[in-house]
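User: Need the bound-state model for iron/sulfur cluster:
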Amino acid sequence: MVSRRNGRLILVLGDQLTMDAGALARADAERDTVVMAEVADETGYVPHHPQKIVLVLSAMRKFAAALREKGWQVAYTRLDDTDNTGSITGELIRRAEETGARSVIATQPGEWRLREALDGLPLPVTVLPDDRFLCPPAVFRDWAKGRKVMRMEHFYRLMRRRTGYLMEGEDPVGGKWNYDHDNRKPAQDDLLREKPMQHEPDDVVAEVMDLVSRRFADHFGAVGGFNFATTRRGALAVLRHFVKYHLADFGPYQDAMLTRDPFLHHALIAPYLNLGLLTPAEVCDAVQEAFLAGDIPVNSAEGFIRQIIGWREFVRGIYDHHGPGYAQQNALGHGRRLPGFYWGAETKMACVAAVVDQTRAHAYAHHIQRLMVTGNFALLAGVDPGLVHEWYLSVYADAYEWVEAPNTLGMSQFAEGGVLGSKPYVSSGAYIDRMSDYCRGCAYDVKAKTGEGACPFNLLYWHFLDRHRDRFQGNARMAQMYRTWDRMSGERRATVLAEAASWLKRLDSGAVV
Ligand code: FAD
Ligand code: DLZ
Ligand code: SF4
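Assistant: Bound-state model below.
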């Protein structure tokens, strides 16, 4: 390592792999040293899916090589290096001693945990905003000021106006802000659906796969079947594939679920956006361009752009705005332990089994599977949201706390008490039956509300509403549900609650349910 006494250390974290953003954009290749480090603290804060670790480490190694090709001095630490200190701050201190650099420039880390660690570093650190996001922190702060509840739909309109995506002057294209009314079609088997791109492991990926399968053999999931792009070029190819083959049908089928097709018309780009291999702006540009060329219906283009400039930017703002400790919230006081079937133990619920199986195989499930199957079940059953959070943060290739925690604790588990969503996302089995083919192959009967073989989602739905009556019965959006519950005879309500309680008891006993 060349000594660079007048230079600075430029920290590039595993999810900051963007050439011309943040700290890298302001650094000087002639005198600064880029620090990248594979460290046990990052590979171990949750039991990440092995494919996620392979993805992050392979992408980091290739990004470091690309930086060196451009003339940067990169101090890169591999996980197995004998002098690896095991933490990002430890590696910065070691590299400062080695190079003589006396200060650090960093792009703000996504997670509060690392932001706080950098604050405690015994070196001067300049933390620059992460300018890959489309909404600057000050704009979100202004928008959020004084709001007790924050609704994505309101924020989204601000973002449409700021970015100009799908706008005609001051008005949204086609006259409506949201075309979801035209979406939400159930899935149909479609043998002609284009399959996801294949990414054959090259030498770098193969080496990391070997490392990860040795070191993380006890984690949920296997490295085999790894099928992610690990470079910017590969990520751009995935984006182009999506726009060409799937974007047109994205809107109508985004809520649909099929046992044998985990991907349907989804984009599969979240891992790349979150690593920095793609930027949100270029993704939206590609979608808008296809729309303007006349290839894409407005409901698909709008629905997709909303996910990026709406939901993705919104959850980032919420996470930042809340401050540290977001993941410790538990407004509903739920405390059940996470059932073993989330980690692959047997369950008779075909929907849960299908989502967990594909999660293990691909480190992927789409939004409605996360929200309305595994998330819905955990909420209905009253699982400790901290454990649910840890599961989502572990098992998905796109999972980073800033995006995962608001989705899990805020949207899915109602653990922050309704700041992000006006009502909990709970449903009985009927919703899953309408949107998927899961119920056809299930040991339970989705039509049965009580009795032998009744779908657990049906029982637990009423159990949830009943046990949280004080909190939710005044919520206008839930009034209809309580009216339906109250119209049932006292005897029927007692049967539902007793059967739900006994089902939960079997769950807690470890029986296969
Ligand atoms: P598509 O369905 O094709 O959507 C396109 C893009 O929109 C995604 O790539 C993503 O960047 C963005 N997007 C869509 N919905 C959201 C959302 N709610 N929040 C933020 N961005 C969104 N997304 C993550 O990126 N990381 C996570 O850790 C994560 N955890 C989640 C946990 C739960 C409980 C839930 C309900 C959702 C979570 N999401 C998370 C949001 C969403 O499920 C994923 O972004 C999406 O499934 C990724 O697959 P895709 O790229 O095929 O997305
Ligand atoms: C997710 C992850 C993993 C598995 N490993 C590393 C690593 O070894 N080194 C690194 O710099 N980053 C890694 N990451 C991404 C970080 O966890 C991520 O930067 C923080 O969660 C902040 O968002
Ligand atoms: Fe899931 Fe109930 Fe349908 Fe079975 S019957 S797949 S448990 S919703």
